[in-house]
Amino acid sequence: MIEHLEKLMQADTIEEVWSLHLERMAGFGFDRLLYGFTRFRTPTSFGSTEDVLVLSNYDPAYLRDYIEGGLYLHAPMFGWAAQNEGACSWHLIEERAGSAEMGEAERRVLALNRRHGVCAGYSISFRDASVRAKGAIGLCARAGLRQAEVDEIWAEHGREILVLNNIAHLRITAMPFATPRRALSLRQREALEWVGDGKTTADIAQIMGLAPATVEKHLRLAREALDVDTTAQAVLKAAFQNQIFVVGR
């Protein structure tokens, strides 16, 4: 346990943290994980899909239908995670499937899951510091494990599993992340950092050794990359994504 936590704390990238976490969860019988996190949740949505960090080792064919096809929006455990914090057994799915409450869209999710062997597991919805942030992870049990067996695993190891997932979540959200379309260049990041420090365009041009027009170009490209209207919004969004003021970029 301590050795694993040391490795997590020493990891430099999200990919390293994710790889360590996959290995650790597989040791408990969860061999497929799906993690999602956004800092741009609103009362009616989870923000642009471009701003959602998704990590998974599921089959790409499953993710194509579930994520890209938008079926996740109708998944029972997604709905639970959006409204709750803590951990929940996938026994909830069995309960809904046996009731009249499950709609047609949910049944399509259930059919997709059965085709891909996504049959038993646990979901964790994290408690985040911001009302705009939301993170959750689905832990799918390896083939052959029934939900009753998964619940037994959780009864014995659930506390440890919950702590490990929360620590992994904290490490991931503390690191820079952006989709390729949202990623900033080094110059764009530097220009935004100086704006965040209260510098004017003329100040930044002198500091960076550039023409004011070039600084304005970097700021414009940063706004476009981040899909915002103002430079102030770009600074805030880049900070949310840990893309600026980061050591060892």
Short description:
The protein is an alpha+beta fold and 249 residues long. It has helices spanning 2-10, 14-26, 60-68, 76-83, 91-97, 104-115, 147-173, 186-196, 201-208, 212-226, 231-240; strands spanning 30-38, 53-56, 86-89, 121-125, 134-141.
What can you tell me about this protein's structure?
The protein is an alpha+beta fold. It contains 11 helices and 5 strands, in the order ααββααβααββααααα. The mean pLDDT is 91. A hairpin with an 8-residue loop joins strand 4 and strand 5 (134-141). Helices cover 52% and strands 12% of the residues. The chain folds into 2 domains: 2-173, Beta-Lactamase (2-Layer Sandwich), CATH 3.30.450; 186-240, Winged helix-like DNA-binding domain superfamily/Winged helix DNA-binding domain (Arc Repressor Mutant, subunit A), CATH 1.10.10. It has a 5-stranded antiparallel β-sheet, with helices on both faces.
How would you describe this structure in keywords?
single chain, about 250 residues, elongated, Beta-Lactamase, alpha+beta, 5-stranded antiparallel beta sheet
Order of helices and strands: HHEEHHEHHEEHHHHH
Secondary-structure content class? alpha+beta
**Strands side by side in the biggest sheet:** 2-1-5-4-3
**CATH homologous superfamily grouping of the largest domain:** Transcription factor LuxR-like, autoinducer-binding domain
Q: What's the number of structural domains?
A: 2
How many separate helices? 11
- How would the global form be characterised? elongated
Q: Which stretches of 5+ consecutive residues score pLDDT under 50?
A: none
CATH architecture of the largest domain: 2-Layer Sandwich
- How much strand? 5-15%
Termini Cα gap: 29 Å
CATH hierarchy class name of the largest domain: Alpha Beta
Radius of gyration, taken over Cα atoms and rounded to an integer in Å: 21 Å
Overall mean pLDDT score?
Answer: 91
Biggest sheet overview? 5 strands, antiparallel
Question: Percentage of helical residues?
Answer: 40-55%
The tally of strands reads: 5
CATH topology of the largest domain: Beta-Lactamase
